[in-house]
Recover the amino acids of this structure.
């Protein structure tokens, strides 16, 4: 089951919504039920309007990323917010800075657009968390506008906290990275972000707000993941894919049968096979392709009928991190064909890269150990 179906597209960006979002809509309808059907519709409508602002926030990130040559494949809506998936990480600190501030700037713009529609007498009351819609309020236009205004202001203030990996934390890392290495900047930003997460969690516990500790836990774990990813990227940038692909891989002929591939899978650790004719790569057959063929067709078919003809090509001079990014951005399997000019050299998969990372990390740690 697809738990995050695409609800619409904006150019090449798929806007997806996790099915758990429906629970949030149901919850909002439930807490507004005292006002009848009108109140239930108002609660759900306010939720949809608020998440429309979240979509615009993420589109701000996406458009900013596009201006520096980083496409965004999709935006995912979750009950706790939205996530824009960049095809690759920005290489320059100034690019990360620009992408990070673009989202909150959208919310600032929305707040300025809404401000003239708030009655003057309600301005002071609006600048309060109490202005957020609650079941005690009567559903009205003024409540909706005031609530959206405050929600956008709060989105800006919360996202700009220097708690990595929130937008403010990314701004902090970008600024630090301008005067030091990205790895060191990430370490500093992670320490600050996790410290801020602990403070947020304690505040939530003391105030009986269960959402704050949950949010703090998410920030804490996400910061750790970001640091691990940066360390991995730094290590993978030190090795070329031309030094890591399998030079002794088993290859297939287009006339081979699936039964032969099954034998290879059972007797070797190789999960992916190049289908070649002479020195020309015709396609790729993965373990998943073979298993699918066995389930859907009981005949012992030729591999030419099940191979993937559309595959990712990478130059042997790319780093392992570049190849990992290319495979992830293509969203077309987990294997790439390595070429030297027009010459096919071999295959490399995300699994191969993960194993190479483990070896690189092991060697690096061995160098730091004291000699005996």
């Amino acid at each position: 089951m697809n738990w995050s179906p695409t609800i619409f597209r904006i150019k090449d960006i798929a806007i997806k919504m996790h099915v758990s979002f429906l629970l949030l809509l149901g919850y909002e309808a439930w807490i507004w039920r005292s006002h009848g059907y009108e109140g239930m519709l108002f609660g759900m409508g306010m939720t949809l309007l608020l998440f429309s602002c979240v979509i615009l926030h993420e589109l701000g990130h996406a458009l900013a990323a596009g201006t520096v040559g980083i496409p965004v494949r999709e935006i995912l809506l979750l009950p706790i917010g939205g996530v824009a998936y960049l095809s690759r990480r920005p290489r320059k600190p100034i690019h990360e800075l620009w992408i990070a501030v673009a989202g909150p700037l959208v919310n600032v713009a929305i707040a300025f657009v809404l401000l003239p529609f708030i009655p003057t007498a309600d301005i002071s009351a609006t600048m309060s968390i109490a202005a957020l819609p609650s079941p005690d309020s009567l559903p009205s236009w003024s409540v909706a506008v005031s609530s959206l205004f405050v929600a956008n202001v709060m989105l800006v203030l919360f996202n700009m906290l220097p708690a990595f990996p929130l937008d403010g934390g990314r701004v902090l890392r970008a600024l630090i990275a301008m005067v030091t290495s990205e790895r060191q900047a990430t370490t500093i930003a992670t320490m600050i972000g996790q410290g801020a997460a602990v403070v947020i969690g304690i505040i939530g516990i003391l105030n009986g707000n269960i959402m704050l500790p949950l949010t703090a836990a998410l920030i804490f774990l996400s910061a750790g993941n970001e640091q691990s990813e940066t360390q991995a990227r730094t290590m993978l940038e030190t090795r070329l894919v031309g030094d890591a692909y399998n030079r002794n891989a088993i290859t297939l002929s287009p006339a081979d049968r699936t039964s032969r591939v099954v034998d290879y899978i059972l007797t070797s650790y190789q999960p992916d096979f190049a289908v070649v004719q002479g020195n020309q790569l015709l396609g790729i057959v993965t373990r998943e392709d073979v298993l699918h063929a066995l389930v859907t067709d009981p005949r012992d078919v030729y591999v030419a009928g099940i191979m993937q003809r559309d595959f990712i090509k990478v130059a042997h001079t790319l780093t392992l991190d570049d190849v990992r990014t290319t495979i992830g951005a293509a969203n077309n399997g987990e294997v790439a064909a390595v070429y030297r000019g027009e010459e096919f050299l071999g295959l490399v998969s995300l699994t191969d890269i993960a194993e190479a990372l483990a070896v690189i990390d092991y060697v690096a740690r061995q160098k730091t150990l004291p000699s005996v």
Observations:
- Residues 197 and 219 are 6 Å apart (CA to CA).
- The radius of gyration is 26 Å.
- The mean pLDDT is 86.
- The first strand starts at residue 6 and ends at 10.
